[in-house]
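Q: How would the C-alpha cells look for this protein?
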Amino acid sequence: MGVIEIEVDPLPCKWCRQPLEQRRWWAPKRFCGRWHRLKYRVMQVVGFVVDLLT
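A: Here is the predicted structure in C-alpha cell form.
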C-alpha cells in the first residue's frame, strides 16, 4: 500500500510571520517555538486586562 500525501500550504507564525513547515494536516503549527507561543499568550492576557479596565 502506498502512503497518502497531502500538501498543506505553509501558515505564518502568529508572532513573527515566518512561514512554518506543516508536517501534520490535522494539527497545523501556529508558532515557531514555545517562546513565540508564550509571548502571544501573554499579550492576549495583557490585552484582555487592558480591555476590561477601559
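The mean pLDDT is 90.

The CA atoms of residues 38 and 44 lie 10 Å apart.

Upvote if useful.
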